[in-house]
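From: lab user (bench 3)
To: helpdesk
Subject: output format question, protein + magnesium ion

Hello, I'm new to running complex predictions and I'm not sure whether the block I got back is the full result or only part of it. Here's what I submitted:
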Amino acid sequence: MKILKFGGSSVGNAEKIKNVTEIIKQSIKENKKIAVIFSAFHKVTDELIKMSQSASEANQDYLEMFKKLEDRHINIARQVLAVKNQSSVLAQLKLNLNELEDVLHGVYLVKELSPRTQDFILSFGERLSAFIISNSLKDNNLDCEFLDSRLLIKTDETFGNAKVDLALTYKNIKKYFESHSKTQIITGFIGSTFNNETSTLGRGGSDYSASIFGAALNVKEIEIWTDVDGVLTADPKKVKKAFPLKSMTYEEAMELSHFGAKVIHPPTMQPALEKKIPIRIKNTFNPSFEGTIINGKSNSHNFSIKGISSIDEIALLRIQGGGMIGVAGIAQRIFTALASKQINIILITQASSEHSLCIAIMPKFAALARKAIQEELYYEIKEKLIYEPLIENNLSIIAVVGENMRKTPGISGKVFQALGKNGVNIVAIAQGSSELNISTVIPKDDEAKALNALHDAFFLSIAKTVNLYVVGTGLIGSTLLNQITNQAEFLAREYLLNVKVIGLANSRKMLIDSNYIDSSNWEKPLFDKGTKTNLDAFIDEMKKLNMPNSIFVDCTASDKVVARYKEILDSSISIVTPNKKANSSSFKYYQELKTAAIKHNVRFLYETNVGAGLPIISTLKDLVSSGDKVLKIEGVLSGTLSFIFNSFTKGKVFSQIVKEAKAKGYTEPDPREDLKGQDVARKLLILARETGLSLELEDIKVENLVPKNARQSKSVEDFFKKLELSDNYFESKRKSAEKKGNAIRYIALLENDKAKITLQEVNKDHPFYSLSGSDNILALTTKHYQNRPIVIKGPGAGADVTAAGVFSDIIRTSNYLS
Ligand code: ADP
Ligand code: ASP
Ligand code: MG
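Helpdesk reply: Thanks, we reran it on our side. This is the complete output you should expect:
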C-alpha cells in the first residue's frame, strides 16, 4: 500500500484537480491499494485566517472574503463533478459553507477569536477540498470514499499546533482501515481532541497527516506531491540555480525543513523514520520525474552539503550580563519559561564566555518571550546581574545542511568566506551538535544574496558567475559588450567563469533583469523592455536585487555617476571604470572610495584611467605595495598630444596637424580640451595619488598649449584661425630643438612630490624620442629601478584597448570574488 498526499499547490483549480485524478488512477493501476490525503485548495488556509481575523476585529470585510471563498469552491465543484451528481454534492457543500459562515458571524459578534475557534474555522479548508475531490473521483469511476481525519487523529488541546497521540491514533487508523476497503480520500492537517473538538497540526501539517497514516498502515512508501521536482538544494523561488536532490536522510530533511524548507513539514519525518518508511517528494506537474527519496541512507552526492534553507523573518532575543557567568541553570530556566508559553526556539547561541545568550524565535512571539524571561529572571534583572532582554528584528536565518559536513573540514570557513566577500554581516552563528548544520543569523535584506552566494560557493564552486551592471553604451561600453560576447565561451570553458550582464543603462533607457541581458543583442531588450533612465532608480534596484558577485561598470564620463560610487561600494558592489572623474576629484572622495572598498571587501579598479589598457596603474600599485619607492614618473599620457608632436616634423605646420588629428577622430570635438592639458593633469594626479601623495588637481602645474588669444574663441573654426597665428611660435620651438638634434614632447612629470606638465625637448637617447603614432609611454624610476627605469609603452587610447582593459579589470575582480 502507498499513501499519496497532494498539497494546496497541486489543487489550486479544476484543471489541476483533473491532473491529480490522472495521477491517482495511474497509481491505483501500479500499486492496487492506496490512500490519498488532500490539503485545502491553494491559499485557502491563508484566506480563512484573514477572514476570521477580520471578523474578530468586527470588520465586515470578512463577509466579502467569505463570499469569494464560497464562489471559488462552488465553481470548482461544478467543473469537476459530473452533472448528474452535482445537486446532491452541492447541497452538502452549501450546508458546510453555511456552517462556516455562521461561525464567522459568531466571531464577528463576540469580537473574539480563540485558538480553538480558529482551528475549527481552518478545518473547513481541508474538509471542503477532500469532500469535493472525493466526489469528483467517484464520478471518474474510482471506488473511493471521503474520510474526515478528525475521526481518527487524536491530539492534545494545543490548538494551532496540536500534539498527536500517536499510539491511539495508529490504533484508530488500523481499525478503521480493517473495515473500510475502498480508497480513502482523507483530509490533511486536522484532528480532534479527546473532547472531540477540532484541532490542527500546524501550518503545512498535511504532510504530517500523510506520514501518520503511512506509519499506522505500515505502507511501502509515502508520496508527497507538490509543485517542485522534489527537495532542491535551495528554495527555487529564491535561488534560481537550485537543483533537485536524488535522495537524503530523514535527519537532513528534518534540519532543512526546520530551517524553512517549506517543501516538507518538519514533524513529517518522525513517524516515517520510526517505521523506516521512505518518503518520496514528487512534482504533480512533472509526474514522470523520479523526485527525491527521503530514507535512512546517506547517499553518494558529490557535494559537501545537501542543501541551504532559510527562514525569512525571525527575531533575536539577546540576554546578557555578568550574572550569567558560571551560574548553573540560567539557560535551563530561560528555556523552561519559553516552553511554558509554547514558544518554539529555532536556534540558540551562547558565547563561550557565557556572558550572553541569543535565542531566535518567530517575531510574533518576541514580546511574549521577553515578558516570560523578565518574569523568570525578575530577581537577577532587578539586581542588575542580567540586563533587560533585548529584541532584535529584521533578521533571517540561513542554514547549511548535510550529513557529509561531519566528515568535511572547512565548511564553516567556506560559509563565512562566501558571506564576508559579499558584505553580509553575521549577527549570530550556531552549529547543531549533530554537526548536520551550520546556521547563521543575518540581516533580512541580505537573505537572497546570502542564499545565492552560499549556493554558488557550495554547489557551483567550480563555476563562478559575476553579475555586471553596465552604465554607458557609447563606444567603450558597446565594445566591452562585444568583447564579453566573444569571450563568453572561452571564459566558461577555460576559467569556469560566467560573465553575465544583468543591468544596462545609457542616457535614454535602462533595464535590469536578474535573468541576464544577452550581451550579443542588448539593444533590442534595452529598447523594448527598458524604462526611461533614472540613475536613482537604477541604483535602488541594483541594491534591492542584492545579487552576489556584483560589479558596477561605469563606461560614462559623468560626474553624476561618479558621485554615487561611495554608495555603491557601501552596498558591497565592486566598481570597474575607465571614468577618470572619481580618482581625480577631491583627495577626500578618492580616499573615501578606497576605504569603502576595503571596508566592504570589494574591489574598485580603474586601470584604464591612465594609458587605456596598458598595465600602468597595476604596475605602480604592485611596486608600491611590495615596498619599492617611486622616485620619478615621467610620461606622455595623451594619445592625442602624442600624435600631434610625433607628427610635428620638418615641413609640417602645427595648426594643420591639429586639424588632421581632429579629422582622424583623435581629438575631442573641441581640440582645446586636449591642448589645454587638463586630461593629462587628471592622469598625472591619479598616478601621484597611487604613489601615496595627497595632491589635488590644483597642485598640478600645467602648460596650457592653447594660445592665449584662442582660449575665448566661440567656435572651433574661430579657434583654428587663431591657432594659425601661433604656427610661427610652435615652428620656432621645433626648429630650435631640431638644431640640437632633439624633439619636442608634452611630458607629465612627477618628481620630489611635485607634479607638472610641460612641453619639453628630449634628446635622441631619451626613450620618448622615438615615440610614434598616438602611443603613450611611461618611465618609472624607483628605488629598485634607479638607473634603468621601467618603461611601459603602447597604444594608450582607442575603444578596443580601453574596453579590453576594463574587461581585464572585471576578470581581476571576479578572481577575487567568491
Ligand atoms: P504544497 O502546497 O504542495 O504543500 P508548499 O508550498 O507547502 O507546497 O511547498 C512547496 C514549496 O516549497 C515550493 O514551491 C518551494 O518554493 C518551497 N521550498 C522551499 N525550500 C525548498 C527546497 N529546498 N526544495 C524544494 N522546495 C522548496
Ligand atoms: N492547508 C494547511 C496550510 O496551508 C496545511 C497544508 O497545506 O499542509 O497550512
Ligand atoms: Mg506544504
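A quick orientation on your result: Residues 443 and 685 are 40 Å apart (CA to CA). Let us know if anything else is unclear.
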